[in-house]
Amino acid sequence: MAAVKSVLFVGVGGQGTILASKILTMGLIAEGYDVKMSEVHGMSQRGGSVSTQVRFGESVASPIIGEGMADVLVAFEEMEGVRYAPFLKESGIAVVNMHRIPSMTVLSGQCTYPDGCLEELQRKVKVVPLDASQIATDLGNVKSANIVLLGALIAALGLKHIDWHSIIAQTVKKSFVALNIQAFEKGKSAV
């Protein structure tokens, strides 16, 4: 088994960051990796920031990813990608959904959503931009954007050999299995 790898999922409440990280965790455990996962919900039910940390390898002592330690950052929303960029290693990769969710302060007119989030990230790290929300919408359900991003992550990590379809089928509602498998494959082929 390889050295410990660290993946940081970030987004806004309701985007499915926790589900995506749970599917990743289940697949890695099934493959025999030692896996540690932690979640930070914050004000997720109010549209606030959500982050999930997954670390895997032969032996993992802690689920916590410190600044400069993440191998991959999966940003479900552009601004969250910028907010958590300091957690990436210099050699890390950011898989970013090119999607904007305005915060309450933006919606109330107190501030504007900053332009250039993706460009700012690209100045700091290697970025894989992906319009996961549009891909999911084209498949019939924008809520499967999280699984599109999971597919992209799997391709970026080189973990295609695991039976992800089976893990997805065990995790999501039966009526959404086919859609989520399609979303996963679209994300995997987009990288």
UniProtKB/TrEMBL annotation:
Q: Please provide the record's keywords in A-Z order.
A: Oxidoreductase, Pyruvate
Asked if the Swiss-Prot or TrEMBL record annotates the protein with the keyword Hydrolase, the reply is: no
User: What Gene Ontology molecular function terms does this protein carry?
Assistant: oxidoreductase activity, acting on the aldehyde or oxo group of donors
Q: Which residues form the Pyruvate/ketoisovalerate oxidoreductase catalytic domain?
A: 13-187
Q: Name one Pfam family in it.
A: POR
Question: Does the record carry Oxidoreductase as a key word?
Answer: yes
Q: Which InterPro entries match?
A: IorB_Oxidoreductase, Pyrv/ketoisovalerate_OxRed_cat, Pyrv_flavodox_OxRed_cen
Which domain of life does the UniProt lineage start with? Answer: Bacteria
Q: Which PANTHER family match?
A: INDOLEPYRUVATE OXIDOREDUCTASE SUBUNIT IORB (PTHR43854:SF1)
* Name the record gives this protein: Indolepyruvate oxidoreductase subunit beta
Recite the lineage of the species: Bacteria, Bacillati, Bacillota, Negativicutes, Veillonellales
